[in-house]
Amino acid sequence: MTTMTLKRSDADVAAEIPDRSQAYRVVKGGLVDRRKLLDFSFDGTSYKGFQGDTLASALLANGVHLVGRSFKYHRPRGILSAGSEEPNAIVELRSGARREPNTRATVAELYAGLEANSQNRWPSLAFDALGINALAAPIFAAGFYYKTFMWPASFWEKLYEPMIRRAAGLGHAANAPDPDTYDRMHAHCDVLVIGGGPAGLSAALTAGRAGARVILVDEDFKLGGRLLSENQWIGSQAGVEWAAAALDELISLPEVRILTRTTLFGVYDHGSYGAVERVSDHLAVPGVHAPRQRLWRITAKRAVLAAGAIERPHVFGGNDRPGVMLAGAVRAYVNRYGVLPGRRIAVVTSSDDGWRTVTDVLAAGGQIAAVIDTRRSVPQELRRAAESAGATIITDGYVAGTRGHLRLKAIEVVDSYGGAQSIACDCLAMANGWNPIVHLDSHLSRKPVWNEHIHAFVPAAMPLGMVAAGAATGHFTLADCLATGADVAADAAKECGFERKLYPVPSTEPESAAHTPLWRSPRIKGKAFVDFQNDVAATDVELAHREGFRAVEHLKRYTTLGMATDQGKTSNLAGLSIMAELTGQAIPSVGTTVFRPPFTPVAMGALAGHHRGKEFRATRHVPSHAWCEENGAVFVETGLWLRPAYFPRAGEKDWLESVNREVNTVRSRVGICDVTTLGKIDIQGRDALAYLEKFTANPFGSLPVGKARYAILLREDGIILDDGTIARMGENHYVMTASTANAAKVMQHMEFCRQWLWPEFDVQIASISEQWAQYAVAGPKARDTLRGVVDPEFDISNEAFPFLASANITVGGGIPARLFRISFSGELAYEIAVPVAYGDALWRAIMQSGTPHGITPYGSEALSVMRIEKGHAAGAEINGMTTAADIGLGGMLAKKKDYIGRLMKDRPGLTEPDRPTLVGVRPVDTSKRLRAGTHIITLDATPSLEADQGFLSSVAYSPSNGHWIGIGFISRGPQRIGERVRAYDPVRNEDFEVEICSAVFVDPEGSRMHV
Amino acid sequence: MSEATANVWAPRSAWAGYAKPGRHGRTQGDAGVRLTLRDGIALATVIAADGQTDALRALVSERYGWTLPEPGKSQVSRERGLVWSAPGQWLAVAETRDALRELPDVFRGIAAVTDQSDGRAVVRVSGPNARTLLEKGVAVDLHPRSFQAGRTAVTSISHIGAQLWQLDDAPTYDLAVARSFTGSFWSWLTEAAAEFGYEVEQGSAH
Amino acid sequence: MRIRCPHCGERDNGEFSYLGDATVVRPDGMSASSEAMHDYVYLRDNPAGLHRELWYHGAGCRSWLVVTRDTRTHEIRDVSSARDVALARHTGDAA
To answer: Any coiled-coil ranges, and where (chain C) (predicted)?
Structure first.
């Protein structure tokens, strides 16, 4: 590790050079496996740790406290906690495609070869050039975004934002695709237990023994919660042994599922929960076919929240100095990991449990420099161990500041008489009481309430089906945890239909959870941090107060208190308590903000699971897909469908040439197009016709069996919903098509009409979209081509099967098929349908049969060109804003029946005479290219919103006309045929003359369809 | 019709181009999942006409010996029967296409029948990890306390509409998805099954 | 959010889509005034409390449902088949 050129004594430097031999590892004890030595690296330096370590415990074992730089001021930061609440020790793990920023070292499990790097420093962690930000602290104070970067506005994108981004501690995401897979699992249970500490284990045992289906979730890789970190006894067993025995029993219960390394990150309505399991995060690379992580969607009838509590730091000057830690974390490192976080450890406590740190450190062979209890009186039995170890004991005192640069060297202590002294130490343990984890129970916006007795917010009205136990409710003693866990789980099991049975709660040692928190040291030397991760200091809360941002929601947003990735787990209350003090209110009057999912950050990969890349959403294939692929089709996504857009041939220079050739071939010979994507709906029943008449806007009463008709569907507000065709296949049997884009919507609408509006009709509706492959065969040679596939007993001559005929037929020697003589292209055309299994065969057979006639396959592009040439409205015209009259079909609407949209289509706004109506447009200079979206204005108009007379909705190059054509909506369009206007396109800077014309550019008499 | 054109008229499997028979995924040990592609299966939607449910119940019992399943239930034995799929609506299931061909005539006036044999890709999922595999995609509780042989669910898997019915306590499931989604569904299914090791086999053909 | 479909059982809300107020009744288009139809199409109450609303179980049995939901808490008090509700209402009209 390179050191910098600051003037410091050699002794200082020696103290800060990390020892790579685990010099801080206690000789024995802890739950690490000392037989499994693991190599790892941090900022390029190699270290060793043990199986069972976290990255944080392994770094501490090697004497490394400095692990990061802070977000705004780039202050040196160490390891504060031993859990998921960690605000400071945020590192980048792994490298290459698996590089992962913003990972908490306190929960990252050590594995052989683990590679970690500090973030937010340049050029190195020890010497960070941006540490100068600390000197400029005043401009980075609360609200600095609002004040500093206000003007000039153009500086924001070019200067301010890049500068802030470089300076801010966001780490670097991998810049290669994630090589791992992410799994998803749905799980259901009677009782979900959140947290595997004493309360959670007790709850899981109780519900599991009752026979309930139980899921026990814990974010740690080992069950036991605080039992792993404290020296406590349960009955005749050490807490750790009791937890192991509980685990053994839970494993033996067949209906209990235990998920470790799993964070329950979100609580949703009606018993839905989200959790993420880090299946392979503790491995260098996931096993073959094993996912990196697994997202669990859990549905539980009841949930027991036993998430525990988070210890509160004290607010004093330099409380962010590496070496300043939570007391519970110090005990965790000592007891669970066998690591002494310092040679000389001081303790500042406002609670009885802080004193446990003294006993545990001494038992591990550590030295206690001092104990400062901020309370006036401290029970004699607490003091005994520290006294006999010769530690300085100060009551009714506090810590005002700290000394040291990259590592704590001393604390500045003030005693009850106001006398100040400096006490040398390299680690300070802070015990300021605990906050129940109220995050999960507030995910559904239920505000926690203040409990005066424990000086903390506790869950109030819990979400339905959820109940809390143990430290999560403010019951901090082990006895209470075991008892409340069992009690609420017994109730939960009973509510799920199992017998309520309580087992005797094992005995525990006497214990006191008494504490009187000190929210802020009365005198502060240096910067005292409230929110470590977002660099919010006590002075920022004061500033917010001075500037009037006193409401809790304002305080949060103005200072960014509690807004970092840790959601203020260690900071919120400190900020609130200072605001309470400044405003002279009680903390509950200040209130609290609530938390939202996720409890801890969740990787996007875990949320996406299988659905990324081309699996982002499902893809639907048409029946001719295989043939189209074999024949080089270019595909286009339309909704979920992958459709052939065009079929390029050798020598064609661009898509337009291919599309022109396809159009010309259809208009002169014959073509085939896969139109299976249309929605297809089967309608049967005695009242089928009566029902159809209700939801179609044009009349169907006169449609005979064996005929098809164009159908317009309106919404109830008078706007067109969709259009399609309806064919009458039998007396009470109709088959309807809907457009590709609206197929699902139309089906839903039809069910709405059938079930809700007119339930008395006898009508049966079934989607047959997936059952039938349907192809358009169009062009003068369409009939000749079809004759090669339709079985000879069916006469498809113009006389026997005229325009708009429909019939059940067979093809290929008895394969059932449906034939409709309908035309979208304006040519002699059919749509022919077969069961999808024969779709591929029918396509190949038609290609074969059409070869002598010069058949071409055509895609969605040519289809679109031909419908524009014919002036047929499609998605760009039926756009959710237009009426049947707008697209020129007002005359088709029925007069003598009630149908959906009948009254509302005549609203004044929809019938006013100036309303833009569908017409065609062609450029006066035929070399000009029209553009969809182009506005229409008169020849002498000055372009403005008021001068706008309409727009072009669809344009195409028309090979049949030899120039670009367009259709669109122009005010009073049909009365202005022949008038010249301007096509004005400010986006592309185009402005040229066009002529309003009929929307039908090919065969205006419509004779070709009838031959 | 010539020999050459006759050959064109072969049906294409819903799974063609997507599924490959054989062992895939994890290679050690026995396959945790068996996926049987059920190409030959016949399916038809049967929707009772208004007020005709009792008549339909009597008819299926008399003619086929089936009972009309209650909501959420299926009655499939020896590969034939009915699976509930919506209020007043069932999916008739048979092993061969011929078996259901007479249904529209038999049920005329009592129920509307629409052939769906080609509209669904059906796969039989069995093996020791069958339930766990489905739990990855199905949000419905498949635990034996909630879902047993003779139960069915219309739901979605991996955002794709699906219907499944449990055939036995092994458990074995038949799973049907809309045919145009076969490729995407197979992609999900096989990625989810890879960790267990899976064996793909062809069921009865047309 | 989970909704207990009367036909399929309890399902995740991803299987459903929402339409809106189930208390408005479509007037007959031949006899209604355009004002009455306007009210049916556009006018909605927005109660803080129990609300009867139409949901569609599109990814399940394709049934329309009348869900009685407390808009303040999301608590669902009742789920009925919309067709049954509509039939009962029509019978009520006739009586």
So the answer is: none
